[in-house]
Design a protein that fits this description.
The chain contains 13 helices and 6 strands. It is an alpha/beta fold. It has 2 domains: 3-128 and 238-320, no CATH class; 131-230, no CATH class. The protein has a 4-stranded mixed β-sheet, sandwiched between helices. Strands 4-5 form a two-stranded parallel ribbon. Strand 4 (107-110), helix 4 (116-121) and strand 5 form a beta-alpha-beta unit. Helix 5 (132-141) runs antiparallel to helix 6 and helix 6 (147-169) packs antiparallel against helix 7 (174-199). It starts with a helix and ends with a helix.
Length: 321
């Protein structure tokens, strides 16, 4: 809903004039309180040994560029089956990952091939994993140039995804997934890479097929790494799904009003998305925690994350029954 329409509705309901500046100030004060919960979610995220990360470009009004917008990025870090944390940066450099995951992060990190990820893991106890969804995208786009060859590569990837779906539906654990991948998907991956080397000389490097083959070859070691780690997904789609609503939303609101507004939005996105993941109604949750946060101690903030808040509510209902 456009901002001026929200302002009109507020006036009609309350019979008072609230300026845009006052509403912005209220939002900033609310986010300062909510940031404590967002920081707690980030602390929990950094303890996970497997995190999926993705980023999307978002323009913002830059005071150094009057009448123009600068280019920033909204980063999302997601722990499969758990929570997600968003951060806003006016950059796409590796230091953004340091801010999000911590410079001392240790664990497994899926990557789409962007150079910031290898730069982040350099000299760290972090394993990079390739994303088969990104590898597939190149061959999908090359179908017009070489339909039979692209179709063959896509079929190999489709076969692996079919097995992954079966494992997911059967609720297979990491050990079973690893054993199944070694017995079945490994042969497909090896055949896939033999074909890449064989066909590479046939296509110009800048052609769609040439680019698809080069990407898959460059990512070869990281694409194959999922075979030996049953806890790791075949792609980075969970992080992409977490960031997709913001990518759709920016088509409506176009840009952030400032760098500060970008980070305020990231805090709100973090809480709303965690509510969605854990089946919590956002309005009820935000209303309750905003009333409680002014008197909440640092040690008690962890009780106000969406998941813990939901558990506490469920306990109260059981006790009252």
């Amino acid at each position: 809903m456009p901002f001026h329409r929200q302002e009109q509705i507020f006036r009609q309901r309350h019979g008072v004039f609230i300026s845009r500046q006052q509403m912005v100030q209220w939002l900033a004060q609310s986010v300062r309180l909510l940031s404590a919960i967002s920081d707690e979610l980030k602390r929990q995220l950094r303890q996970s040994r497997y995190v999926q990360v993705d980023e999307t470009p978002v323009r913002y009004q830059d005071p150094d560029l009057p009448g123009r917008c600068g280019q920033g990025y909204l980063w999302a870090a997601s722990v499969p089956g758990q929570g997600v944390v968003y951060e806003w940066h006016a950059s796409r450099a590796a230091h953004c990952l340091n801010s999000l995951l911590g410079s001392g992060y240790q664990g497994k990190l899926p990557s789409d091939g962007y150079s910031a990820y290898p730069a982040f893991v350099k000299n760290k106890a972090v394993e990079l994993f390739g994303c088969w969804a990104h590898a597939r995208r190149g061959f999908f786009e090359a179908q017009e140039q070489a339909p039979k060859v692209a179709g063959w590569f896509l079929n190999q990837i489709r076969q692996m995804y079919g097995w992954e779906k079966q494992l997911r539906l059967s609720r297979a654990g990491p050990a079973l997934r690893q054993a199944h991948r070694r017995a079945h998907s490994r042969m497909v991956v090896e055949r896939f890479h033999r074909a890449l080397h064989l066909l590479r000389p046939r296509y110009l490097p800048q052609s769609p097929m040439g680019q698809a083959i080069s990407y898959a070859l460059n990512q070869g070691p990281t694409l194959a790494r999922f075979l030996d780690h049953g806890e790791v997904e075949i792609d980075n789609n969970l992080a992409e799904n977490a960031i997709r609503p913001t990518a759709i939303g920016k088509k409506n609101w176009l840009f952030f009003g400032s760098e500060e507004a970008g980070q305020r939005s990231a805090v709100i996105y973090t809480l709303i998305e965690n509510c969605r993941r854990h089946g919590v109604e956002p309005y009820t949750y935000l209303k309750d925690v905003l009333e409680r946060l002014p008197t909440t101690t640092n040690q008690e903030v962890g009780q106000l994350t969406p998941l813990n808040w939901k558990k506490a509510r469920q306990t109260q209902v059981k006790m009252a029954a």
